[in-house]
Amino acid sequence: MRFHTRKWVKPEDLNANGTLFGGKLLAWIDEEAALYSIIQLENSKVVTKYMSEINFMSSARQGDIVEIGIAVENFGKSSLTLKCEVRNKMTRETIIRVDNIIMVNLGEDGKSKPHGKTEIEFVKDRLAE
């Protein structure tokens, strides 16, 4: 799993208990999954179809730095299935794992469209061509 993004937990990210608000973290995960999918599928029209059960294992407090990791589980015909792990860089604990996030590639008409991808591509390899 590659950890591409780090977030600094700020006061506006906290819940009433003074810890990272789960909804904020899920929004960060959804955004990271979308960005990853857009780059992999080379299409800015990608949507979240499904996110599996989530299980908060630990938390983060103001000032902590969390990092978000994404890995591809499967390439479907018009979808991409990802898994995600978020960890607290300060405590070295896993905050959450999401086993399945399904992102769908869309065409201009807003309907699912086959993407033709079968394996992970890295931008550095695309630039070399």
UniProtKB/TrEMBL annotation:
<dbReference type="InterPro" id="IPR033120">
    <property type="entry name" value="HOTDOG_ACOT"/>
</dbReference>
<dbReference type="GO" id="GO:0005829">
    <property type="term" value="C:cytosol"/>
</dbReference>
<dbReference type="GO" id="GO:0006637">
    <property type="term" value="P:acyl-CoA metabolic process"/>
</dbReference>
<protein>
    <submittedName>
        <fullName>Acyl-CoA hydrolase</fullName>
    </submittedName>
</protein>
<dbReference type="InterPro" id="IPR029069">
    <property type="entry name" value="HotDog_dom_sf"/>
</dbReference>
<feature type="domain" description="HotDog ACOT-type">
    <location>
        <begin position="1"/>
        <end position="109"/>
    </location>
</feature>
<dbReference type="Pfam" id="PF03061">
    <property type="entry name" value="4HBT"/>
</dbReference>
<dbReference type="GO" id="GO:0052816">
    <property type="term" value="F:long-chain fatty acyl-CoA hydrolase activity"/>
</dbReference>
<dbReference type="GO" id="GO:0009062">
    <property type="term" value="P:fatty acid catabolic process"/>
</dbReference>
<dbReference type="InterPro" id="IPR006683">
    <property type="entry name" value="Thioestr_dom"/>
</dbReference>
<keyword id="KW-0378">Hydrolase</keyword>
<dbReference type="InterPro" id="IPR040170">
    <property type="entry name" value="Cytosol_ACT"/>
</dbReference>
<comment type="similarity">
    <text>Belongs to the acyl coenzyme A hydrolase family.</text>
</comment>
